[in-house]
Amino acid sequence: MNGNVIDGKAVAAKIREETAAKVAELKAKYGKVPGLAVVIVGERKDSQTYVRMKKKACEEVGIASFGADLPESATQAEVLAVVAAFNANPDVHGILVQLPLPKHIDEQAVLGAISVEKDVDGFHPLNIGRLAMKGREPLFTPCTPLGCMVLLERCGIPIKGRRAVVVGRSNIVGMPAALLLNKRDATVTVVHSATPKAEAEAICRQADIIIAAAGQAQLVRGSWVKPGAAIIDVGTNPIDDKTKASGYRLVGDAHFDECKAVAGAITPVPGGVGPMTIAILLRNTAESGERFLTGAVKVSGAEKKQERKGLAKLLPTREQLASPLPVLAAAVGVAAGAVLQRATAGRR
Ligand code: NAP
């Protein structure tokens, strides 16, 4: 911490260092390193930048990176075939599908097709379900919310028995953040877009911990914060700034200056939660690699059956099977392409 400002970059650097040590240990012991496959569909510039950053980060800690870049026009069957190929590839221990997917592709179907044992993003319903249930643990927890928890823990901020508010309830940040806080015995309230603003303010003012993940620039004001509370600001919102060459700058969901004056601890934007997301992705991948290499992956028979049932829904329909050639040709072609597309340093 610098004063009351949490240094997310420093915590993330430490996690990357620990992950690199784990990867080196696995390589020395088993002669293999963990592998992460990143699937991207379409040409969105922001998604391509995130994917490049993830691949570079993998290389830096010694994780092997695999990639499949599909065009915007790719069909759902083609995307599912790529996922299936990575599910079957023993050198791949983590699979990540970059979101958002093009509108014609069913995100649920694609995320649900990732093997639960390789779901390093933690978005598979089985992993989210386990996160929600008492006495169960997911194989993976979504990276951004877990990054928030690690920041709290490593900064020595108590969670058990404290009042926590999560602003936002999305599947990728707010909802899993609330589940995680609940698992760590905080008393959790979630506010969302239907919560009247005055009520959100009053609820936040009672909180010892605020996780702000609404995607609303500077929504949480100083008046919303209980003196001494911890604020983890997930938001990354561009606002106009004529002093910058780009014409904009990024701000969080909390008004930093106002909140910093009242809070006991606060993450900046940028430099707070952002660097943690990739660091946790690397750590999740290394943990997955370790589970596979040591043979410790444990998924119960019932859950396997459940997963197979889910996958069965994704298989071609009777009508498609009546003329299977186009489906099979697409699936085999894309799967082969994906396997061949192993990304190596410098190639991208
Ligand atoms: P999202 O899918 O748009 O969800 C936003 C959530 O905030 C929704 O649950 C929404 O409520 C709620 N919300 C919207 N306006 C609100 C308001 N005025 N008061 C209270 N709640 C409100 O966004 P997301 O994917 O969760 O991302 C949230 C923010 O985090 C974004 O700025 C995003 O860029 C950032 N982010 C950062 C990282 C990182 O690594 N740093 C990673 C992921 C996301 P409803 O459910 O009622 O619609």
Automatic annotation (TrEMBL):
Pfam families: THF_DHG_CYH, THF_DHG_CYH_C
Domain Tetrahydrofolate dehydrogenase/cyclohydrolase NAD(P)-binding: 142-290
GO molecular function ontology, one term from the record: methenyltetrahydrofolate cyclohydrolase activity
A single GO BP: tetrahydrofolate interconversion
Alphabetic keyword roster: Hydrolase, Multifunctional enzyme, NADP, One-carbon metabolism, Oxidoreductase
GO CC field: cytosol
Pathway stated in the Swiss-Prot or TrEMBL entry: One-carbon metabolism; tetrahydrofolate interconversion
Database matches in CDD domains: NAD_bind_m-THF_DH_Cyclohyd
Record's catalysed reaction(s): (6R)-5,10-methylene-5,6,7,8-tetrahydrofolate + NADP(+) = (6R)-5,10-methenyltetrahydrofolate + NADPH; (6R)-5,10-methenyltetrahydrofolate + H2O = (6R)-10-formyltetrahydrofolate + H(+)
Family: Belongs to the tetrahydrofolate dehydrogenase/cyclohydrolase family.
Protein name, as recorded: Methenyltetrahydrofolate cyclohydrolase
